[in-house]
Every structure is written in structure tokens, then in C-alpha cells.
Design brief:
The structure is a single chain. With 464 residues, this protein is of the alpha/beta class. It has helices at 40-45, 65-68, 71-76, 87-117, 132-138, 223-240, 253-266, 280-290, 298-305, 322-327, 349-356, 375-380, 411-422, 435-449; strands at residues 2-5, 17-21, 26-31, 57-59, 83-86, 139-142, 148-151, 154-160, 168-176, 179-185, 208-212, 243-247, 275-278, 316-318, 335-339, 362-366, 385-388, 391-394, 398-401, 427-431, 454-455, 462-463. The protein folds into 2 domains: 2-218 and 407-463, Ribonuclease Z/Hydroxyacylglutathione hydrolase-like (Metallo-beta-lactamase, Chain A, 4-Layer Sandwich); 224-405, Rossmann fold (3-Layer(aba) Sandwich), CATH 3.40.50. The chain has 14 helices and 22 strands. α4 runs antiparallel to α8 (280-290) and α13 packs across α14 (435-449). The mean pLDDT is 93. It binds zinc ion (ZN). Zinc ion is lined by residues 62, 64, 67, 163, 188. The site of zinc ion (ZN) has 5 residues, from loops.
Length: 464
């Protein structure tokens, strides 16, 4: 058996995609996009498999774009086999891929304008919105813990990974020449104390473990501290009748922030004020959360019984249309506005920042990673003035960076996930982490479990 990483290896975090080849079958585990790096576009244009006819199946661990974004490119290139994933992953993946397809088209128009000026021929978009329905025709929902044959001689079982709604680790039982072997892909793992969702499950021991290592070099501050800090800001804004602006990604972080506000209202820590979710995509994703209560943790189930979620209670204000969004310019505080894009580099959040950054009673909550060169990064860096839509805007708002809302397991969580598997002395290969994160984790795994973990490299097969 041979497993070849086609992304999320060699110190690269995005573009997760592994080709597994046995004597009877070929399948992919994840098929994600490269994001944020120079050359990402070229990498995304390269199909991970040249012969689609020889591909038996695609297995998706979770819906994030860096794990699913190249799936429509596969089907566009002729892949017509099954795509296995949990039901919630399928629902969220379709929302994410539809959005991605629109972005591919607009990015491609920009690329082609440049190419034309350079006297070069235009190129096709990696995929377009019309390519996405084909993916829906091929998806097959799997139940957690239920074995499913995905290809000749290959049985998969999915386990909760606690990283986002529907996220899974996957165990593959593979029979080659009558001999059984097991391989586990961790997928992205969530932190143990994340709200709303269940924690990651214990996965059965395996011969080979392919494990993520995003935060392999550090431990997050305790989640409760982040929540306390968040609550203090909300109370201050409420008393001063200010506005909270949260640049946020549509899936995961939006629902998490609304959840914490809902809990504060419920526990009467702060008088109820309106919470605007100004993102059609986030509203779609929120519906998916509401339709998968089986994935909630005990606390969330109890809150739900108390009427807290599905989000309602008079405070939750969906903002669907562009007019709804513009109307928010005229609402008074206290209120919270959540809008995309998460790095403030595009989208409706730009309008809200333009209208409110110059006001000292505005509080901007940075709850996700801000890439180099983005407006979000400039705000985090404390720049006194920024440009939005060509206009100079003074930054008098309070900017709060709250890294503690991360959806990734930290070093101690990763080791806790590995512990029950380590006794069987498996081979461990680390992926999905920069080298500065993977290398300290190798040392910890050696010290703790006496295992010599390896670092995966793109294009270099792992043979078993
Ligand atoms: Zn992820």
C-alpha cells in the first residue's frame, strides 16, 4: 500500500489531499485547495490524479475549503465515483463550494485581465458555479462509527473529530493479499473544550496514523479565559451603548460567537441587545447547525431544551440582502454585527468598518487568523489610520485580538488524541503543520510514547 500526500505536507498547512493506492483500489482522502501562499493558484490548477477512471472513491474528513476545495475540479475533470462524508460535512461542503466557485470566477477574471495586458491567452476558471451540482450528485452520507465499504478491499469508519460541525477522523481497514492493515487519518482535530460540539472520540489502534500538527508546538490559553475576556468586552460595550464588529468566517466562528452572546443573555450577564448576522453564507451555515442537533455536546443540548438554540429569543437578526446590510449603518448601539470576510479583505464587513472604525465606542473583535497584508492584520498591528475603498479612515475603535477561539487542537490535545493509539506502537506520520509546529511535536511524541514520528513530504509516498 502507498499513500502519497498531494498537499498539507512539507510544512504546508493547506491543500489537504492524499492518494491511497492498494493492490485493488485507488482513493483520495480529502481534496482541498491551497490557500494564501504564492503559487497557490498554480497548485490548485494541477489535478492530484491524472487518470480519473482509475479512482474508486473520494473520502472527505470535513467541510473546510482546504480539505474540499478541489473536489469540483475533480468532477469537472471527469471523476464520477462516490464522495463519502458525514451528512453535516456534505451540507456545509456544498455551501462552501458554491461560495468558492463564485470566487474562482471573479479571481479568474482578474487573472485574465492581467494575462490580456501581458499579451497572453486567457485561462479557464478552475471551476464555476455550474460545476458544483455535479458534486451533489456524487456525495454519499455516512454514519459515524458504521463501517462502509468505499472501494474493493477498503472499509472506512468515521469518528467525531471535534473540529467543526460534521468533522471526522477516518479509519481505513485495508485488505491486501489476504492481509488486513489499518490506517487512520486524524483529519483536523478540535480543541477539547470547544463549546457546542462534542469532543473528539477515541479512534481504535492502527498500523499507520496520519496526524495533523497545526498547533503541534504550543498550547492555547484556557478557553474559559478567552470567554471571560469576551464577556468583559461585551459588558463594557453594552454599558456604553457601543457597537461590536466581528469580522468572521461564515462557518464555525460565527455560530460560536453568537452562542456565547446567547449564553450571556440567557444567564442575564448583560441585557439583551440585537445581534446581526450580516452574511447570507453564514445564515445558510447556521441552518445546517440547526438541522444537526445529534452533533451537539451535552451543554448545548441542555441550552437547546431551554430554548436558547435554534437562535431566536428576539435578539438574533438575520441580515440577508444588501439593503438589510446598508440599513445597519443607521442602527444604534448596543449591538453586535458579524460579517465577512474573516480577514477584512472583502465583503460586507468593510462597509461596517468604514462607518464605525473612527468612533471610539466601537469594539472590533478579531477572532480568527489575519493574513499578511490584509486590513485585518493592519488593525491587529495597531495602525492609526487605514484605507477602505480608497478612503482614509481613522482607527479610534478598540481592536481586541482574541486568538483563543481557535478550532484546532493544541499540543496537549493532539497528544491526548494519540495516547490511546500509541500503546500499539503504530507508525506515525505528521502532516498539516508548518515545520516549526511539526518538529516540536515529533520530540513530544518521542518523549511521551517512544515513537519516532515522521514528517510527510508532498509527492513522497508513504509505503506500508
Ligand atoms: Zn479544518
Amino acid at each position: 500500500m502507498k499513500i502519497t500526500p498531494h498537499g498539507a505536507a512539507s510544512g504546508e498547512v493547506t491543500g489537504s489531499c492524499y492518494l491511497v493506492e492498494t493492490d485493488q483500489a485507488r482513493f483520495l482522502v480529502d481534496c482541498g485547495m491551497f490557500q494564501g501562499t504564492r503559487g497557490a493558484d498554480d497548485l490548485n490548477r494541477r489535478p492530484p490524479v491524472s487518470n480519473m477512471d482509475g479512482l474508486d472513491a473520494v473520502v472527505i474528513t470535513h467541510a473546510h475549503l482546504d480539505h474540499t476545495g478541489r473536489v469540483p475540479a475533480l468532477t469537472k475533470a471527469g471523476y464520477a465515483g462516490p464522495i463519502f462524508a458525514s451528512a453535516a460535512t456534505i451540507d456545509l461542503m456544498m455551501i462552501i463550494l458554491e461560495d468558492s466557485a463564485r470566487i474562482q470566477v471573479s479571481d479568474n477574471e482578474r487573472t485574465n485581465r492581467k494575462r490580456r495586458r501581458a499579451g497572453e491567452d486567457p485561462v479557464e476558471a478552475i471551476y464555476e458555479p455550474d460545476d458544483v451540482p455535479r458534486v451533489r450528485e456524487l456525495v454519499r452520507a455516512v454514519r459515524l462509527a458504521t463501517p462502509v465499504q468505499i472501494a474493493p478491499g477498503v472499509v472506512a469508519r468515521f469518528f467525531e473529530a471535534g473540529h467543526m460541525l460534521g468533522s471526522t477522523s477516518v479509519e481505513f481497514s485495508i485488505t491486501e493479499a489476504g492481509r488486513p492493515k489499518t490506517v487512520v487519518f486524524s483529519g483536523d482535530l478540535g480543541p477539547a473544550d470547544r463549546p457546542m460540539l462534542k469532543d473528539f472520540e477515541t479512534v481504535p489502534p492502527a498500523d499507520l496514523i496520519i496526524m495533523e500538527s497545526t498547533y503541534g508546538d504550543r498550547n492555547h490559553r484556557p478557553y474559559a479565559e478567552t470567554v471571560t475576556e469576551f464577556e468583559a468586552i461585551v459588558q463594557k460595550v453594552s454599558a456604553a451603548k457601543g457597537k461590536i464588529l466581528v469580522p468572521t468566517f461564515a462557518v464555525g466562528r460565527s455560530q460560536q460567537i453568537i452562542y456565547h452572546l446567547a449564553v450571556m443573555f440567557h444567564e442575564k450577564k448583560v441585557p439583551v441587545f440585537p445581534v446581526y448576522l450580516d452574511s447570507p453564507m453564514a445564515l445558510e451555515a447556521t441552518k445546517v447547525y440547526q438541522s444537526h442537533p445529534e452533533l451537539f455536546d451535552d451543554e448545548m443540548v441542555a441550552y437547546r431544551k431551554a430554548g436558547l438554540f435554534p437562535i431566536s429569543g428576539g435578539y438574533f437578526k438575520p441580515s440577508q440582502t444588501a439593503d438589510d446590510s446598508k440599513a445597519l449603518n443607521h442602527v444604534d448601539g448596543p449591538c453586535a454585527i458579524l460579517a465577512g470576510a474573516g480577514m477584512c479583505n472583502a465583503g460586507r464587513i468593510l462597509h461596517h468598518l468604514k462607518q464605525n472604525l473612527w468612533k471610539p465606542d466601537t469594539h472590533v473583535l478579531i477572532v480568527g487568523y489575519q493574513g499578511n497584508g490584509t486590513l485585518g492584520r493592519r488593525l491587529v498591528n495597531g495602525e492609526p489610520q487605514v484605507k477602505i475603498h480608497g478612503e482614509k479612515i481613522a482607527v479610534r475603535a478598540h481592536i481586541h485580538t482574541m486568538g483563543g477561539f481557535s478550532a484546532h487542537a493544541d499540543q496537549s490535545d493532539l497528544l491526548r488524541w494519540l495516547e490511546p493509539l500509541a500503546a500499539a506502537q503504530p507508525r506515525v506520520v505528521l502532516t498539516h503543520g508548518e515545520d516549526r509546529a511539526r518538529e516540536p511535536l515529533v520530540t513530544e511524541i518521542q518523549n511521551r510514547f517512544g515513537l519516532a514520528a515522521e514528517l510527510a513530504e508532498i509527492g513522497q509516498p508513504i509505503e506500508l
